[in-house]
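Protocol step 4 of 6: record predicted structures for both targets in the notebook before any analysis. Target 1:
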Amino acid sequence: MIFILIFILKGIEAFVSTISTILIIDEKRLIGSLLSFIQVMIWFLIIRIALDDSNSIFMALSYAGGYSIGSYFASFITTYFSKKKLLVIIITSNKNVLRDMKINGYSASFMKASGLYGSNNIIIYSFINNKRKDELIGIIKNEDKKAFISINQNKELINGYFKHSNDT
């Protein structure tokens, strides 16, 4: 029974720790710091319990398993609630990518480009909500399986055009 308790507590502690770190990185310092306090209190409780029965390999397995599960679920939650804008850079020779992006409510800027291995390319720049990343990749790959795609996270955006109908 103690192993299940350690597994659950460590899962909660790892979840809170991951969320706290992300909030602090996102400059939500007060909430992140409060969660850090809770995380340390849970960690202290876990250590107190674990040290009473520290001779068991199952204690270590419960601790490690809880940490893995907590971090895993936190990564899904933070991705789902993230309001970050991503810069997606696409290099393709297929102009239908632009058409499909527009049909699906994306905004973009583009320019003709030449490279060492091709002279009939376009470079597309699009800022998107993190939640739409997989959808956009699917649209691009549907038209050009060999398109080069680079995705970067932005700290701050000022001005510009963003179609928001599908970004909520």
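Target 2:
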Amino acid sequence: MSKMWRRLCWGCVTACLLVGIAVSAWLSLTYEPSYYREIVNLPRRDREANAKQFVTSSLQLSNDIRNESLWEAVFSDQEVNAWLAQDLLTHFAEHIPPEVREPRVIFETDRIVLAFRYEQLGVETVITVIAKPRVPRDNLLELTIESVRAGILPVYADGVFDRIVGHARSKGIDVSWKRRDGYPVVSLFYSPNPQRNDVRLENLQLRTGQIRLAGRSEKPLEEPKPSKPLSRNVIQSNYPSTNRMNQSESAGSPPL
């Protein structure tokens, strides 16, 4: 076999390997988990029923926060996902980064799985984030990010977090992130009711398929007065919502 022919063969083999690697990387990046497809493609009738239940439970929670000293609520991930599909873009589109579409959640014991479509430079992938939440003090939610994947590929997520957190802060949401013990930790300070500075979120629990929120309203109880239940429009604009951290907390947040 001539030297020229051997070079040609090696060139063909190298080209095939490069193409194979590129195709494998593309397929890995654009892989869509089956659970995400099932959630996104949930029949419209089921979505409407679950979204209605989510709004009903949210209305009840908001009224309990206004009128009770202790309050709690339980939501299923099916209800949350139905609301995300039905109402998120209608009422909160301006708070979603343009690169992000169709966010969905799965609740597991002590873990939350967040998945969403993410498009950049003409490439669309499904980002999957596994996080462990906790409430270290009243109204402060911390999410320790245990893994981030684009398709099936692990992602060094600093750039993604910078974009999403930067967009959220530009919309008045008090959120920041930093690394702790090698893991990204997202901190979100908020109040379940922006008109009441005495409202405190004290506990958040995750079980398979459910999330439980609990807290208190420290305002002294007054003589009960009849009031109309909050409407769907009111709940969409007021719950959940974000507040600014106080000056001391802001000073302690690491720069992005």
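Step 5 preliminary note on target 2. Residues 29-218 form one domain. The first strand starts at residue 70 and ends at 76.
Proceed to step 6 after PI sign-off.
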